[in-house]
Structures are given as C-alpha cells and as structure tokens.
Transposable element Tc1 transposase
Amino acid sequence: MPGKRARRRFSHLSEFEKGLIIGMKTAGFSTLRVAGQMNRSECAVRNFWEQWTREGTQARQTGSGATRKTTRGENRRIVRQALVDSTVTRSTIRSDVGVAIVPLTISRHLAEANLKSKSPFSALPFTPEHRQLRLQWCQARSMWNATDFKRLCLVMNPGLFW
C-alpha cells in the first residue's frame, strides 16, 4: 500500500539516537519530524520523550521482569548436571536442585549456557564390516578419472545428467 512504512524489526534506541531525540525535541522539532529523520516510529520517539521529560533520565528501567526463582549457584548446578550426564532429564535435574521450578526454566538455563538437546541418529553408524567394504570399493576405483565416475553416475541416476 502506498504511504505505508515497511515494518522494521524491533530494536532499542541507541544512546546516540536518544541524544538526537533530546536535541531535536529541545530545538522545537515535532515528534513526527524527529521520527521521520531517524527512521523510527512516532510512538517510540514520543514514549522516549515523555520518559525524558517525566523522569529526566534516558536509562531503561531495570527489574521490570519476573524475579528469578533460582540462585546463581543453582543455575550452575543445573548446567553442571547436564554436562556430566547428557541423558539426564529435566525432571531429574529439578529434583536434584531442590527448587520448585518448571521444566521451561531448566531449558532456558541450559540454552543460556549454549547447551542444546541432541537428536538421535538418523541412521546407524558404520560397523567395522561396512568400513572394510567401503574401503575396498574406494581402492578398486582409485585410478578412475572423471569420465568413469560420470558413467557410474549415469548408471545409478539416469536423470542426473542431461
């Protein structure tokens, strides 16, 4: 639709942008003009300017989220258990830590420590017999050139080369 701005991914105002807003608004620019100059939403500029005039500060408020249910030591214990035993379940970790937390909290702590769940094998690993057969196949064809391999590919998958 003409006249509509493309929606940007949300990002906080940088310290530089906050300073620009304060300067431009102090100089008498309208909120709409400041937003257009900075390529930010009018709402973001207005909200920041209201906070600045109300509180006289440009710092974000801390502690606006829910309080943590676990201490740093308990967080380390959660991560340590997952590192020691990769097959441990969230319910086992919860009972070992001894704090009433939901499984999502445990998952979040593990994600913060850059630990991800491991997916099972999609195929069985090679047995020693498989490895030996594969080595023999490769050694038998070690002197082949590109034409020989192309011929093999045509036999195995006729639609691959046209």
Observations:
- The longest helix spans residues 42-55.
